[in-house]
């Protein structure tokens, strides 16, 4: 499926987890955009054929950032970073994507 409409979005922010705050701003990623979805009549099947895909992560990694807590202690926090996005085939369902690749 073409993935030209599905792209990675990047936002730099300070992470907060369990009352602790990252010591530096971190880049948080997400996937956004549209993928090919259509319905077409099939004479062979004598019914409508549906093709749906969703914009979602294709590759991820784990990143670590140092956090400082209100009591002055420091801890490390691991978060998921999206490396790439793409269109994934899904089951056509109103208002939602169901991954059919697994």
Structure summarized in a few sentences:
The chain is mostly beta strands and 102 residues long. It has no helices and eight strands.
Characterize the structure shown.
The protein has one domain (6-73, 81-91): Cystine Knot Cytokines, subunit B. It is 0% helix and 71% strand. It is mainly beta and 102 residues long. It starts with 5 loop residues before the first strand and ends with a strand. The model has no long low-confidence stretch (mean pLDDT 88).
Beta-strand content bin: over 45%
Written as H for each helix and E for each strand, in order along the chain, the element string is EEEEEEEE
Helicity, as a percent range: under 10%
Count of structural domains: 1
The CATH class designation is Mainly Beta
**Main β-sheet description:** 6 strands, antiparallel
Summed over residues and divided by their number, the pLDDT gives a mean of 88
Rg, Å, rounded: 20 Å
Alpha-beta content class: mainly beta
CATH architecture assignment: Ribbon
Give the CATH superfamily.
Cystine-knot cytokines
